[in-house]
Amino acid sequence: MTVSDGGPRVNGDAETTGSSILSLGDGDIHVRLDGPRDAPALLLIHGSASSTRSWDPMVPLLTGSHRVIRIDLLGHGGSAKPADRSYATPDQARRVAEALDRLGVEHAVVVGHSSGGVVATALAEQRPDLVTALALINTGPGMDAFIAPAESAAISPSQWPPTDEQIRLFASTAFSRPGYRIPRELMDEVRVMTHHTLTRTMQGTLEYLRQRALPDRLAPLGKPLLVIFGEDDRRWRSSSAADYLTVPGAEVELLPGLGHSPILEDPPRAAAPLLAFTAAHAVRAG
Fold first, then answer.
1. How far apart are CA 139 and CA 106, in angstroms?
2. What is the domain count for the chain?
3. Domain residues for 270?
4. pLDDT for res 285
5. pLDDT at residue number 178
6. DSSP 254
7. Which end of the chain has fewer CB within 10 Å, C or N?
8. Which residues, in sequence order, are bridge partners of residue 110?
9. Does residue 286 form part of some domain?
10. Residue 168 has what pLDDT?
11. 108-113 and 131-137 strand pairing
12. pTM above the 0.90 mark?
């Protein structure tokens, strides 16, 4: 797939797979498309210090019935990493919406992992016309649910880029079992960020949650909502998933034995409730 001034062009095959760069008004955004181009659109939004690659194990489970769209948020992965642009959650959501418009996507089920679920919520607030339904995976509903780490894993600017050991410490609470071997490609994705983009993105997420809890934001939108939570999450209290039940019609699925990143720890278990949900709410293109 290539990108011209008029947007992406695809070949005549039923399958559309490939990466491209969309030049938006305030930065280049990397997108990845997989699956049949006429299938219902499923947008996957990664969390902080991550990228489209965090969804790699899940994608083969989803492309049988969806056109899977992945976007690297500004400051992450293959997207631009400018020091003079906003990394606030509403601005990240605005860029996602602009990218979908450029891709010609009119409706999508939007899935966010961790802070990606915060961006997904902001997207639904800004562009309810685009968002058919929402699925949040281990996205804390508000700051009351945050579990402070036992020791600081902060990486200072003078230590950038971080070592493998620093990344493992920083990401240790992202998985349920101590000693989980973080895939090399995901460690590399942390290093391609700048210290500025990492810290500003995380600050933007916390500021958005402090302003208003996600269930309070989602309740008036009237969008179908699925919440998937690894029960052994070490970053957000898994019991807080019940807070989302204040959203009319919300469904909550707890996954015992999994932690903050079920999309990596056990992709089939994470995909099962998601596929059941999208089967009920996805809209076919065209």
1. 25
2. 1
3. 2-281
4. 66
5. 67
6. E
7. C
8. 43, 134
9. no
10. 87
11. parallel
12. yes
- Rounded to whole angstroms, the Cα distance separating 54 from 271 reads 14
pLDDT number for residue 3 = 42
So what's the pLDDT on residue 202? 94
Q: Which residues of the chain have pLDDT under 70?
A: 1-16, 148-153, 177-179, 285-286
Distance in angstroms (rounded) separating the CA atoms of residues 102 and 171:
33
Q: Which helix (H) or strand (E) holds 69?
A: strand 67-71
H or E segment and range at residue 7: strand 7-9
What span, in angstroms and rounded, lies between the C-alpha atoms of 281 and 276? 9
Alpha helices in the chain (DSSP H): 59-62, 89-103, 115-126, 164-171, 184-191, 195-211, 214-218, 262-265, 267-281
Residue 225 exposure: Cα atoms within 13 Å on the Cβ side? 29
Question: Could you give the CA distance from residue 193 to residue 174 in angstroms, rounded to a whole number?
Answer: 18
d(CA 230, CA 235): 11
Q: Indicate whether 252 belongs to any domain.
A: yes
What local confidence, expressed as pLDDT, does residue 81 receive?
Answer: 97
User: Helix count (H) and strand count (E) of the chain?
Assistant: 9, 10
DSSP secondary structure code for residue 73 in this structure: P
CB 228 within 8 A of CB 137: yes
* Residue carrying structure tokens 């690297």: 72
For residue 218, give the nearest of 139, 103, 113 by alpha carbon.
Answer: 139
The pLDDT of residue 171 is 87
Tell me the CATH number at 36. 3.40.50.1820
> What whole-number distance in Å separates Cα of residue 19 and Cα of residue 70?
9
161 lies in some domain: yes
For residue 31, give the H/E element and its range.
strand 27-34
Q: What is the dihedral sign for C-alpha 22, 5, 17, 124?
A: positive
Q: How many residues does the chain have?
A: 286
Q: Is residue 13 part of a domain?
A: yes
